[in-house]
Amino acid sequence: METRWKCSGKSHVFRRQAHLSGSERGNTMTQRLPKILYHYTTAAGMHGILKSKEIWTSHVLSLNDYAEISYPARTMKKTIEEMISRRSNSSTHRKRLTMMRDGISFFIQWEFANHYVACFSSERDSLGQWRGYGDQRCGFALGFCRKELKRLAEQNKFELSQCEYGEAQLKRALTDVIEKALRRQVSDSNPWGLFKHELAPLFSNFKGLGFKDEKEYRLSSPFIFFARHGLVPDVMPKGSMVVPIHKFLLTDPPMKDRGASIPYEIDFPLKEIVIGPNPHPDNHMKSLVKTACQAYGLRPDSIKITCSDITYRSR
Questions:
Q1: Which terminal residue of the chain, N or C, has fewer Cβ atoms less than 10 Å from its own Cβ?
Q2: pLDDT score at 14
Q3: Domain count, the chain
Q4: What does pTM read for this prediction?
């Protein structure tokens, strides 16, 4: 399911919504959703994705910037402490809120053990993304059809979500979730467990204002997905770490008849490849990428191959 957080009228209450194709066209309260989402990567990353028809979703705690996790955690603790101070006359609410606040660290350590994400951007030619995810010589932005990514996500019980930015929006969304939890018949022994699945998306979908230019979307697994289905992740080396990953198939699984696979035309949602700033002639790079697409079993005539408009500067 693709999800967004949307402000509801003057009350500024945020709620999670599922956007279907029809409602996307008719929804005037949200910005126009992009047709293409871009995954920035290196030449080696592009080779792996196009050859395997998979994208690797990484353990959320292995993201490049730990602030992406610590930022919402700090904001949540601060917001809950403010709510505790405003409820001096309600010992029951104060007790529940205190347990919620103290449970955040536990949530990050244990619940995040089952959460995997892959990052995309609605920006096709972003200098910050080239610097962050390309290499020193050249990077690539793989443009996928958003609606197809959404369909594949739903088919695999994943979610495609648009990130929101800023502490004010996060605090409003968090306050709404907690207030609803407090109004329920919540057990004093475990108030955290009853609303953690509503709180979990805030960790994935909200980031600091400093990341706003990324215009990020995330493909992510539900927090209980791996435990429920008994799946064991793969691992890959990354710098000084060994990172758990989940290989997300970017095509429909092969059709089978009587136990044998039937050859079929791969319906791959790749629509564009943007070649990042590099020292080589544009025509040469386009020709090489087109030939590579043929080698990967793709139809080059269905994929737009373009070059970045940003001037290459050697580092």
A1: C
A2: 34
A3: 1
A4: 0.79
Flag whether 20 is in a domain: no
Q: How many angstroms from the chain centroid is the CA of residue 169? A: 18
Which range of residues forms the domain containing residue 278? 33-228+240-254+267-307
Cβ neighbours around 231 below 10 Å, total: 11
Determine phi and psi for 145, rounding to 5 degrees.
-65, 120
Q: Are 289 and 305 in contact (CB under 8 A)?
A: yes
The answer to whether position 1 is within a domain reads: no
Spatial separation of the C-alpha atoms in residues 80 and 76, rounded to whole Å: 6
Nearest Cα neighbor of 68 from 39, 30, 106, 108 is 108
Per-residue pLDDT tens for 120-176? 999 999 999 998 888 777 899 999 999 999 999 998 888 898 988 888 888 888 888
Q: CA-CA distance, 142 to 252, in Å (whole number)? A: 19
Tell me, yes or no, whether 7 lies in a domain.
Answer: no
2 in any annotated domain: no
Max alpha carbon distance in the chain (Å)? 72
pLDDT at 191 over 80: no
